[in-house]
Design brief:
Oligomer: heterodimer
Largest sheet of chain A: none
Number of strands of chain A: 0
Shape of chain B: elongated
Structural class of chain B: mainly alpha
Strand content of chain B: under 5%
Structural class of chain A: mainly alpha
Order of helices and strands of chain B: HHHHHHHHHH
Number of strands of chain B: 0
Largest sheet of chain B: none
């Protein structure tokens, strides 16, 4: 187990280093990177002075070393718009995004996992068919359209919920539904197929044959075994929530990391973009690592074979 | 049932895209301020008009052209690029395989939509750049799937037999291995297609990608936000078109996977 842990940890560190390298490379995709780092109010004649001052005249390797050294210390430079530490801005917005993501994950687990189990246990009944229709529709509905339609229904027509912003529980309802929809549909589909796989196993027959109540067969004998693929997918998809947050937060003016990133891109505030994208990538890698470790914990065979 | 619904929807979108200029006489770009924000059912404007008085039906139909065009281009670019990389990495193994897998890890450490959005904001707006941004963020799925398939196919007896007969490496790869991984490539392509179409709309919705006045579903939805209180149809129809397209293509993708490659997980 310790060797497995060490190997996975080393791999994650490598991925983080390479991802930071990718972020460094990304801002050079468009040609001249200095254009992305100029303050708002600059004159054309001062561009070269800024190029020199920001170090874009140095050899690429020197620039790379400086970026990596800064990034590893959490220094991505100053926001061009707010004149403040870029990573500080990102971290300030993190709690709002975590709150939104947490609500979405809770919603998913409360709705999608029971739905998946129910449709599997009641296979080929009306419940199963309705559940399948719901998940297929959920996967096909773009989050930003769902968001607009929810706003029209609940904010414009019924006036039950605010159109956007944050502060109260009512503000959290629509953004978390939008963020959860796609995720929940996938989790429900996977829960159904994983549960069906397990229900076909011999030990389930044994459990039923020895007269266990069906509820106990499902919760204790089935769910524990179908948990592995569900946890894996949920963990991997939870990372995609950070991407979905970009859209949900923009629609509902939720003051989180996703909205900050979109605004920074629109304002061409690239120190903040680099800080936000790098931070997201690190969180995502850490999540993947956590999923793998949870995998080892749920299934002892993984530990031994690794 | 799912198969026919999927094929029907996909076909309908295809027809709408190809025949858009013949299905409606209206020009999607022609503004008519006198007739702005007309509700659906107005004579001459079955789906109503937008804030500039442009015909919504024409814009939605022409939007299908753009969406499918971008989807097809992106899928072709990613399938060829990612597929070739996966093919070589799986066939040669050793360092190309290791490099590809690390690259894939890095790529997968960014959420897809965030990566495509950021690249698009850097390389710039427009049709070509949105395809390139989506492809740059999406190729890795093909590379991983194809590599995995090649690793298993090349262990099969007919490949060993061909190699023993003295077939060259390139011929072995393209004539014997490639046809056997082709079904996976097709399945991944069909499953990726709707992701690309929706991602393009999302990126245009956020203000990048395709810009107004070009009739793209995403930028139409973005503009509709300012009129949500007075004109629900501006948000409802382009979004419904996008959702139905995604639904149809997803169902076709599921069906293709079930028939061609039931074990494949994407």
């Amino acid at each position: 187990m310790r060797r497995y842990l060490a190997a996975r940890l080393a791999q994650s560190v490598l991925v983080v280093l390479l991802s930071l390298t990718a972020v460094f490379g990304m801002v050079r995709l468009g040609g001249d990177p200095v254009l992305l780092f100029l303050p708002m109010d600059i004159q054309a004649k001062d561009v070269n002075e800024f190029r020199e001052r920001l170090g874009f005249n140095d050899p690429l390797l020197v620039q790379y070393g400086r970026f990596m050294a800064g990034a590893l210390r959490g220094d991505f430079g100053q926001s061009l718009r707010y004149r403040r530490d870029a990573l500080g801005l990102v971290l300030e917005r993190l709690p709002a995004t975590l709150q939104l993501a947490g609500a979405s994950i809770a919603l998913t687990l409360l709705v999608a996992v029971p739905l998946g189990v129910l449709t599997a246990v009641r296979r080929d009944t009306l419940v199963d068919h309705l559940g399948t229709v719901a998940t297929v529709l959920g996967q096909a509905t773009p989050g930003f359209w769902l968001g607009l339609m929810l706003i029209y229904l609940f904010a414009v027509q019924l006036r039950w919920l605010p159109t956007g912003g944050s502060g109260t529980l009512a503000h959290l309802v629509m953004p978390s539904i939008v963020l959860a929809a796609f995720f929940a549909a996938r989790v429900a589909r996977l829960t159904r197929s994983a549960t069906l796989d397990v229900l076909g196993e011999e030990y389930i027959k044994t459990a039923r044959a020895k007269g266990l109540a069906e509820a106990r067969v499902v919760t204790k004998h089935t769910l524990r075994n179908s948990a592995i693929p569900i946890v894996t997918l949920a963990g991997l998809e939870a990372g995609q929530l950070l991407g979905g947050a970009v859209i949900a937060e923009t629609i509902f003016a939720w003051p989180g990391l996703g909205r900050l990133t979109v605004q920074a891109l629109l304002n061409r505030d690239f120190p903040v973009v680099m800080a936000a994208v790098s931070f997201t990538s690190i969180v995502y890698t850490a999540l993947n690592l956590a999923v793998d470790l949870a995998y080892g914990w749920l299934d002892p065979r993984v530990r031994v074979s690794a | 049932m799912k198969k026919y619904l999927g094929l029907g929807l996909t076909l309908a979108v295809l027809v709408a895209a190809v025949a858009a200029p013949w299905l409606t006489p209206q020009d999607p770009l022609r503004a008519d301020f006198v007739a702005s924000l007309q509700p659906p059912g107005t004579p001459g404007h079955p789906l109503g008009t937008d804030q500039l008085g442009r015909d919504l039906l024409a814009r939605v139909l022409h939007g299908a052209r753009l969406a499918l065009f971008i989807g097809v281009c992106t899928v072709v670019v990613t399938a060829i690029g990612g597929g070739l990389l996966g093919l070589v990495a799986g066939f040669v193994e050793r360092w190309p395989s290791a490099v590809l897998m690390r690259l894939a890890d890095v790529q997968l450490s960014f959420p897809f939509i965030l990566l495509a959005l950021t690249i698009n904001a850097i390389v710039g707006l427009g049709l070509r750049n949105i395809v390139l941004s989506l492809a740059a963020a999406g190729w890795v799925v093909y590379a991983r799937v194809v590599r995995g398939e090649v690793l298993s196919v090349k262990q099969r007896d007919f490949v060993h037999a061909a190699a023993a007969l003295g077939v060259g490496r390139a011929r072995l790869l393209f004539r014997h291995v490639l046809p056997n991984v082709a079904p996976s490539i097709i399945v991944v392509a069909s499953l990726q297609f709707s992701q690309f179409v929706v991602a393009e709309a999302a990126i245009s919705f956020l203000g990048f990608g395709i810009q107004p006045p070009t009739p793209a579903w995403g930028s139409m939805l973005s503009e509709s936000r300012d009129f949500l209180y007075v004109a629900w149809w501006l948000a409802a129809f382009p979004g419904a078109a996008l959702a139905l397209t995604a639904l149809g293509v997803n169902l076709v993708g599921d069906w293709l996977r079930d028939t061609l490659d039931p074990k494949l997980r994407v």
